[in-house]
Amino acid sequence: MSIGSVVVSTLTRTMHSPGTKPEDDPAKIRKSATDFEAMLIDQMLRSAREAGGGLIADGSGEDQANSSLIDLGEQQFAQALASSGGLGIAKMVVAGLIKHADR
Hints:
- This protein has four helices and no strands.
- The protein is mainly alpha-helical.
- α1 (3-15) packs across α4, α2 packs across α3 and α2 runs antiparallel to α4 (89-101).
């Protein structure tokens, strides 16, 4: 099973209640795809930070409150980036879902 079909089936299941079709609500498709892209961007930022390439290069002196604040900042940045076009992942997911819905 390809990653594309996994993404399509996962997003389709989470976006719609049983009996509805994806083409019925294009705004919901775009919102879900944007949220998916934001989640991927957030994971990339978190991985970069944990590898020492994030906002705090050496990670020293990072307490729980600071870590939570950085996590929240990364999530908000990822959401803002995805909402403004991001890396183009949401656009590809929407195109795939619409193509899949036409079958």
